[in-house]
Input
Amino acid sequence: MIYVIYYAFIMMALGMIFSAIRFVKGPTAADRTIAMDTLTTIGVAALVLLGYMFHRFIYVDVALVYAVLGFIGVIVIARYLEGAL
Amino acid sequence: MQSLTFNQKLGRFILNWVFLFLVWLMFTSTFFWQEVIIGAAVSMLLSLASIRLFTCCTLSILNPVKIFWMIWYFFVFIKALIVANFDVARRVITPSLPINPGIVKFKTKLTTNYSKMVLANSITLTPGTLSVDVIGDTFYIHWIDVETTDPEEAFKIIAEPFEKVLLKIF
Amino acid sequence: MSILEIIGGILLVIGSSFLFLGGLGIFRMPDIYNRLQAGTKATTLGGMSLVLGVGFLETDWIWKSLIIIIFIAYSNPISSHALARASYHRGHYPYIKSKEKEKMDAYREVVPHTKKEEKEDKA
Output
C-alpha cells in the first residue's frame, strides 16, 4: 500500500512542477491564473492524501477551506481581468 | 429578479433548508444533539437569506420520475467525464498535439437559468468542449477539435444527450 | 488486504495519474483556451477520484470527502468558464490552426476584434 501512496505523491509532484513552470513562464495573467487553479486542485488532493498518511482528520478540513478560498480567488481575478470590478 | 408567489417561496425555502442541513450533517459527521440543533438553526437562517438568489426549483422537483431522470443524468455525466479525460490524455501525450481548435455556437431549448448553468457546466466537463459564454439561449463553445461549424450539427454532437435528459427534469 | 483497500488503491493510482496529466497539459498546450480544456477536465476527475480513494481507505472520512468531491465538481467548471470569458474580453483571441479564421471563431460577433491585438494572438 505504501508504494501506491509514494507513486501518487511522485505523480502529483511532477504535475505541480509542470504547472509551476507555466506559472513562472506564462505570457499573460490569465495563464498564470490557470496554473494557480491547477496548483490549488493538486494541493487539495495532496492535503487529503497527507491526512490519510499521517492519520490526522484535521487535514481534510484544511483541504476543504483551501478549495473554497482558491475558487473565490480565481473568480475574483477573472472578474478583475474582464474589467467588471 | 423574478417575483415569486408565497407557495413558491415556501417550497424553495424548505428544499434549501433540507439541502443545507444535509451538508451540515455530512460536514460535522456526528449526531450529537447540540451540533444538530445549531446546524438546523444556521441552515434555516441561511436559506431564509438566500431565498431569491441561490434556489433553483420548488418541491415539484421531488417527483419520483424526475428523481429517476436525475440519477440517469448522473450516470450519463460520469460516462462523458471519463471519456473526456481519456480523450484529453490522448491529446496531451501524443507528441504532435492533434488539435484543431475553434469556437462554435448553438441554441438551446432550455429556459430557466439554473438548467442553463447545469448544461454549461456539463459541457465544460465533456470531451473536447469548454463553454465560453451564454447569452440568452445561445451557447458559445470552444471546441478543441472542430468537426463542424454549423450550429445545428454542433448542437447534435455536443449538447443533445444532456439536453434530452435536462428537459425532462426542469 | 480488504476489498475496500484494493478499490481505494486503484482510485489513488488513477487520480494521481490524471492530476499529472493535467499539469502536463497546462505545460504543453499552445494557447489559453486549450490549457483550460486540459487543465480543468484532467484535474477535476483526478482530484475527485483521489479524494474518493482516500474516502474508501479511511471509511470514517467518506462524508467529508464527498463534500470535497461535490465542491470540486461544481467549482472547477465555473472558474474555467469565468477565466475563458475574461481572457476573450481582455483581447487574447484563440489560436486557430485552419485557414478560415473568421468562420472558426463564432464569438467574434459578440466581441469584435480590434486591429492591435490581432497580431498578438500567436503567443
Remarks:
- The helical segments of chain B are 6-28, 33-49, 64-93, 113-124, 151-158, 160-169.
- Residues 63-169 of chain B form one domain.
